[in-house]
Amino acid sequence: MSRRSETRSNFTPQSGHNAYVFAVRSNLLISACAVGSLMAAASIAQNTATVAVFGQCEVCHSVNGINGTGPTLQGVVGRQSGTVPGFRYSRAMKSAGITWDDKSLDRYLADPQELVPGNVMPFSGIVDSAQRAALIAYLKTI
Ligand code: HEC
């Protein structure tokens, strides 16, 4: 064997190892991308569902601070019930004394009259608890 071919045979396993490392790395990269795009697809699906549910509210409620038939829902999570300036609430809502959080919003949205008897929101409620949860998650973002 010449010195030259020895060098070559030393080189081969080395480059093979690098190729292997590269293959493993790029597989990981591809899996990471696949997981990432699945998650993105899931969150787009979730957002689409939430927007569809919120479509039932937005005829009366804005998310931009302007009152309509209902008070704006901007910043509603963490707010005291019946306190948006400039909105004429019913006596029932003004005196309800509720802090809007996950629990109270879930009860109110399931059955508005059950939680605040006599409030004047003309909406009968959302039966599906998963839809309510998605909606409340959305309300936290506005
Ligand atoms: C047809 C109009 C209408 C629809 C639809 C409607 N609301 Fe209302 N909402 C109102 C009115 C009016 C009030 C004020 C009730 C009162 O003063 O008794 C209100 C009050 C509220 C409050 C209390 C706000 C506060 O400042 O204390 C929340 C929370 C709320 N609505 C959420 C929703 C959500 C979420 C939806 C959609 C699932 C929805 N509403 C659908 C009209 C509506």
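^ heme C complex. Helices lie at 3-54, 91-94, 102-110, 112-115, 129-139. Residues 56-57, 59-61, 69-71, 73, 76, 81-82, 84, 89-90, 92-93, 100, 108-109, 119-123, 126, 135 surround heme C (CB under 6 Å).
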